[in-house]
Amino acid sequence: MQFLESCGHDRWSGRRNIKSNYGAGAKVNFTFSVPVSNPKLWDLENPNLYQLVVNVQVGGTTVDDDVQSFGIREIKFDTGMTLNGKSLKFQGVANHQDYHSLGMAPPQRAIQRRLAQLKALGVNAWRTAHDPPSSDFLDMTDRMGILVLDEFADTWTTTKYADKGDYSKYFDVAASTPTGMPPLPAVTGVSDATAVWYQVDFTGWIMRDRNHPSVALYSVGNEIGHGLSYRTPYLTKMIAMSHALDPSRSDTQALQSPASIGDFPGTETSNLLDVWGDNYDLATCLKAMVQVHTKSGLLTEFGTETGTWASVTANPGLTGEFMWTGIDYLGEADKAWPSIGNNSGIMDELGGVKTLGYQWQTIWGAPKTTPPATGTTATQVVLAADHSSMVPDWNDISFVKATIADAAGHVVNGASDAITFTISGPGTIVAVDSASMTNETFRGKVRNAYQGIAYALVQATGPGAITVTAAAGGLTGGSATIQASTGTFVPCSGTCD
């Protein structure tokens, strides 16, 4: 086994050999310790990472291997939160998982781009609303120094949506074939053969995510609407499972109306939670958080209004807030067709910063940026790629921005002209997009501008020069060139993109 430091490129290594004989198909657990002298700690400014390399050898020949990244850091909740001994507040956003035209499984560069845009506003934390994120996402938050409130589920046993397509359909159902999942911890009191799906999924979730240094806190559920007596046995089991599988981390729950459904002023819930979590109820959060053993609370969900932050900074035990929401998202547009999404974010789906986003940037003390200058009379389409170079790797992508502009290049934000994109060279347009939340196809080569802007999302198919052009009726067209070269996509670290 070998440790390698992967960030900063200072390669430090240490080895530990374990020699034993095991029969075919046998399983064995073992524990060992490898001291790391003067470790480079993982934090928000310097997200240092190490790698554990495991080689399985037979007769001196490697027959299997695995690489696990991890970071060395300490997060504590004790009348507030500290990271490596320094007081810190969650400057957080809660976000759905969609990436607009790229769907739920986007290229890594798209994840990187979004995280970098939020970080520029002062965001230091992301709540996964309301399910575990992809491993690619956590790899990126590890590398970029962003904390994560990692959430398990939006529903338990009662459906939240009329079509009954949510997790409640499986939550308490016997897990007939949990093949390939890690074994359940003993605290479940059941065997793998008699487990229900939430126990199998919960175990797999913690085991998958527990080595990510960016994961600061677990949330076992969001707005679970059952009565207290019904919820408590489930919460008891989940907290016990979490502490057994990952004793290094604390647990919270995004509670809904806790003062009216029995969580407060009673103590059943606060006796179980490590950090009191509260949605949209600051007053109850401030009173109830003193009941939990860490004396710490968190606004797991709140609006984008700025006035609440004064209460966060004035109360040492209040560890921060996750606003709803950081980014506009598809979904939750019931009975609003042709609207197909919710525009409640401080940024739009493509990264355009709203007025509230600039206000939060000032409140959080991030380097100040300003909105782009606006024009009045459209004369041209200005095209610009967010990256001038790329590789023919599925995880790489360039967002080519088409701006309907005046003669000075200033965006005419009232323009909604149809923009036609074309491409030449070793590249392809995988989607066309804008920040509009009205039903419109992401396919093809034409997209209506929204507030004067539309995008072509481009990937390389080989090395060479890729030229993208954009045209709109009566306007001078524009072009942008991207140079593609052979290689694989390598995510950035720290402040990037």
Describe the structure.
With 497 residues, this protein is α/β, with parallel strands linked by helices. It has three domains: 73 residues, no CATH class; 289 residues, Glycosidases (TIM Barrel, Alpha-Beta Barrel); 105 residues, Immunoglobulin-like (Sandwich). The chain contains eight helices and 25 strands. Helix 1 packs across helix 2 and helix 3 packs parallel to helix 4. About 2% of the residues have low confidence.
What would a concise description of this structure say?
With 497 residues, this protein is an alpha/beta fold. It contains eight helices and 25 strands.
**Total domains:** 3
> Which CATH top level class of the largest domain fits?
Alpha Beta
Which fold name fills CATH's third level, the topology of the largest domain?
A: TIM Barrel
Cα(first) to Cα(last) distance is 33 Å
Helix and strand composition category: alpha/beta
Biggest sheet, open or closed, and with what strands and sense?
8 strands, parallel, barrel
Features:
497 residues, Immunoglobulin-like, 3 domains, alpha/beta, globular, 16% helix, five-stranded mixed β-sheet, 8 helices, TIM Barrel, 28% strand, eight-stranded parallel barrel
Task: Please specify the SSE layout and strand pairing.
Blueprint: E1 2-5, E2 50-58, E3 61-70, E4 75-77, E5 81-83, E6 86-88, E7 90-95, H1 108-119, E8 125-128, H2 135-144, E9 147-151, H3 197-209, E10 215-222, H4 228-245, E11 251-256, H5 268-272, E12 276-279, H6 282-288, E13 297-302, H7 309-314, E14 318-324, E15 329-330, E16 341-342, H8 355-363, E17 380-385, E18 389-390, E19 398-405, E20 418-424, E21 427-433, E22 446-448, E23 453-460, E24 464-471, E25 478-484
Helix pairs in contact: 1-2, 3-4
